[in-house]
Every structure is written in C-alpha cells, then in structure tokens.
C-alpha cells in the first residue's frame, strides 16, 4: 500500500471524541426526539442504542458521546418529557388543582405511549445509584403535590386521602388505556373512535376520582 493510500485509510477512520460536523448537526435534542418517537410505538426492551441511532440517522457512537449509555439516555427522555409538560397548577383551589392534575397525568401518559412501562421495567432496575435517585425524586413530585393539595384544602372539601395511593391509582388508571389498548379495542363496539373514547374515559376517571374524594 502506498503512503498516500495509507494516509487516506487512516483519515477514513472515525476519530474518538467529539462527533463529526455532519453528526453534530443532529444534536443532543435530536437524539432525545428520536428516542421519544420510538417510545410511542415500541416497548422499552426494543429501544436499543442501535434502534435510536437508526431513527435519528446517526452513528451509535454519537449517542454514546452525548449520553454515555442507554440508561442515562432513557432517563434524559423521561426528564425531557416531564419538563416539556404543563406546569403544575396552583393549590389555592384544591379541587380544581386535583382535577387539572389528573388531566395533566393523562396528557403526559399520551406523550409517550410506553412511558410507565419504561419507568417500571427499565429505570427501576438501573444499575446507577444516581439514576435511581433521580427517578425516585421525579416520581415523588406528584406525591408531594397531592400532599400540598390536602394541606391547602385542610379538610374543607376533600376527605382525608393517602397521597401515595392516589398517585399510584392515577398513573395506573391513566396508563391502562394505553398499555391495555388491545383489550380496549376488543371490548369497544365495532367502528368506535378510539381517540374519542380515550377522551371520554379521561373525563369519566376524573369525575370518579374527584367526586370520590369529595367530603360527604
């Protein structure tokens, strides 16, 4: 091999470190967006670094450059969706805040079809203590918010309730319409508009929980 060919071969190899200019054009947010799109259609176990790279149109090395590993990337997806969601309502009107937060949970669940499964199956078994702590902190947010609602109401309109149980009930109920979609489609009358049924289900659940927690 000539010196010129040898130099060309060496130059064709991808260098370690920062991504190339073409790859850098995708950016960290582009990778996050690709992973989020995949969460709409694939269970977490199928969302690999390779799958995300293919969806984003980049080399897998770029994803490792930005995030280090798959765990960190999936946590970043969760945080990105949470931060992009609607802000928490104020608690000065507890009943309205409760109702709005239930609707907010439904909207968040729709933003990534397999989000709750991701939290349970993937991040719960994360090897990184830092990742686990961040997931725990993120999940404590709604529990703390329900406690603030109860404190703000001070027993005027709402019966006493367990904030943790309420959080588990809301995420479980909201997620089932997504995770249990095959059963929903099986039981719904033929020709049912599933998107419309989803909205009706959200209204039903919200009324059920809010009215169920009203003081009698």
List the helices and strands and how they pair.
Layout: H1 3-12, H2 21-24, H3 27-39, H4 49-56, H5 60-67, H6 70-84, H7 94-111, H8 115-122, H9 129-153, H10 163-179, H11 181-187, H12 194-213
Helix pairs in contact: 3-4, 3-6, 4-5, 5-6, 6-9, 7-9, 7-10, 7-12, 9-10
Q: What do you see in this structure?
A:
By secondary structure, this protein is mainly alpha-helical. The chain folds into two domains: 61 residues, Arc Repressor Mutant, subunit A, CATH 1.10.10; 127 residues, Tetracycline Repressor, domain 2. The chain has twelve helices and no strands. It is globular.
Count of discrete alpha- or pi-helical segments spanning 4 or more residues? 12
Q: What is the number of beta strands?
A: 0
Name the structural class. Answer: mainly alpha
The proportion of residues in beta strands is under 5%
Helical content class:
over 70%
Tell me, rounded to a whole number, the average pLDDT.
83
The string of secondary-structure elements, in order, is HHHHHHHHHHHH
Specify Rg, calculated over alpha carbons. 22 Å
- Tertiary shape: globular
CATH architecture of the largest domain: Orthogonal Bundle
Query: Largest sheet, described in full?
Result: none
**CATH top level class name of the largest domain:** Mainly Alpha
> Segments where pLDDT lies below 50 for 5+ residues?
1-16
- Total domain units: 2
Would you give the CATH topology of the largest domain? Tetracycline Repressor, domain 2
End-to-end Cα distance: 88 Å
